[in-house]
Amino acid sequence: MVDRSNPRPRRHSPIAAQPGETLSRLDQQIVAALQIAPRASWQQIATAIEVSESTVSRHAKTLLASERVRVSAMPDPIRCGLGFPVLLQLGCAVGEAEKVAVRLAQRPDVRFVALLSGSHDIVVEVVVPSRFHLADVVLNELNQISGIVRSSSEVVVRNFKFSYDWAQGLLGDRVERLPVPPSPAGPPRPTKVDEHDLTLVQLLAEDGRTSAAELAKLSGLSESSVRRRMEALTASGALHFATFIDPVLMGFQAPLFLWLNVDLRHLEEVAHALSEQIAVRYVSASAGDSDLIAEVILPDLDHVYDFLTTVVGPLPGIRRSDVALELGTVKRGYLT
């Protein structure tokens, strides 16, 4: 029996890069292709980036074995009936932020943890099954973690973008050669998900490139049933695949979080404008101190300045912005 409250296995997140370390151009292109099409065959990726299949297979398998790159499947919490996401911003005592982040990452209901510069020390995404659970987290459980001195919470009321293809610019127009999974339209709605589906979610969270044949062996389902269920889960948006890597290894030195207060008349316009930017990985409307929250993956601080002045600055209705550079990611996509 699968525990619906925790359909995510614990695993290590992609190994962080050392200062100044980057992948080779070829490896970056392979990873960029995996970000766009996480389950693409080596032949499909080889055709896209114009190298031999054997070269792609050798390099990709080395990257995956090193755990610097992880391909994983993530359930949509609303569509799978697991709850709804909440972003917590935490301030910590001097020298305590990293310890607090590591402790929070150990929680099975936490999907994302990052250390920040700026007005917050940590941002955490927790998936809660109800407002009563959220109240317990905010009012009781955070108080039991030594080192937290202040907190604020933002309930995600609408997600506009959730993607991991921020490095696609490394491929140029070759992006069009890759089999891009279709995105579900409209706001998330609960999807009928049974125990067999959740078993597949767990297995794919461990390795998002596990074949249908292997999934059939591990789950006890027929291969045709596995394929049918996977197609239904991905088509409905209940399950999506992501390729995780430290942005530094891809030559992106300035990942950041952006909190915006926006005139509500312009909220959707601003959210969609941000979502169209390749560098923007995540955009959500929130109920809390901010109206929109975004994560942006940029190459360097010069690009941060350009993004703020040429992308964010001209957007209508923005009353206030708060920017924080990500100092390190402790957990992403339930991978700890």
Q: What does this protein look like?
A:
The chain is of the alpha+beta class. The protein has a domain at 84-164 and 252-332: Alpha-Beta Plaits (2-Layer Sandwich). The chain contains 10 helices and 10 strands. It has an 8-stranded antiparallel β-barrel, surrounded by 4 helices. Strands 1-6 form a two-stranded antiparallel sheet. Helix 1 (25-36) crosses helix 2 (42-49) and helix 7 packs across helix 8.
Summed up, what is this model?
This protein has an 8-stranded antiparallel barrel with strand order 2-4-3-10-7-9-8-5, surrounded by 4 helices. Strands 1-6 form a two-stranded antiparallel ribbon. The protein is an alpha+beta fold. The protein contains 10 helices and 10 strands.
The low-confidence parts are: 1-5
* CATH architecture designation of one domain: 2-Layer Sandwich
CATH class of one domain: Alpha Beta
Q: What is the approximate shape? A: globular
Q: Gyration radius, to the nearest Å? A: 20 Å
For the biggest sheet, the summary is: 8 strands, antiparallel, barrel
Q: Distance between termini?
A: 23 Å
| Helix count, DSSP H or I runs of 4 or more residues | 10
By secondary-structure content and strand pairing, the structural class works out as: alpha+beta
Secondary-structure element string: HHHEEHEEHEHHHEEHEEHE
CATH fold assignment of one domain: Alpha-Beta Plaits
Percent in helix? 25-40%
**Number of β-strand runs:** 10
